[in-house]
Design goal:
This protein is α/β, with parallel strands linked by helices. It has a single domain, classed as Rossmann fold (3-Layer(aba) Sandwich), CATH 3.40.50. It contains nine helices and seven strands. It has a seven-stranded parallel β-sheet with strand order 3-2-1-4-5-6-7, sandwiched between helices. The radius of gyration is 17 Å and the shape is globular. The N and C termini lie far apart (40 Å). GO terms for molecular function: 3-oxoacyl-[acyl-carrier-protein] reductase (NADPH) activity.
Length: 247
Amino acid sequence: MAADSVLITGGARGLGEALVRAFHAAGWRVAVSDIDGEAAQALAQGLDPSGETALGLALDVRQAAQFEAARDAVLARWGSVEALVNNAVVTRARPVLEIDPDEFSAVVEVNLRGTFIGCQVFGRLFKASGYGRIVNIASLAGQNGGTATGAHYAASKGGIITLTKVFARDLGPAGVAVTAIAPGPLDSPAVHELVPPAQLAALVETIPVRQLGDTAFIARTAVHLAGRDAAFANGAVWDANGGLFMR
């Protein structure tokens, strides 16, 4: 039996790169997509110069036509695609009273609209084929309102959690499981760029386990949720926040 295939959005760097490497290491054929197509192609080339198990694609998740083109490129290369990981993200940190409405829309367009389009485009394909896995990357900020991120980021991530439940309910009967992962602060370039060192040190002191999250662990969790035995996790939001938010 051929290996399963996955498309990962925002896959060229940060958590996206960790996701790509984890899926590839687990034996998946991986389509690395990113708005920076050259970076996506470079990562794919580094994983497998032959292109047999890694493919790099340019993808602006805000555009349904580009999502459809990426889907078709994966199908043309490998004949099938079994999973989608919606990871593409824009993060802004700004006090809520200072957020320009256009900036709010720009963040929501990538994070929430992009996830919606991905779930819809691939949901149709998976429903028609009778099988599929969608893993959405949400955030603790979407559960507690965020502490180091902007309201637009937090609102978009809360929306992703809701979309996950909607698509899970709609697609579950067709053999498609839709789940989300809600990480807390991660030891990633994005977090280090977003939060000044002194503020980050203070933030770590508020985490019960007194450390930032590991992107590799989040990535392995995504691989787990994309597995063929993960149907019963449908609709779940998996928390990984060091104890900052418990329910």
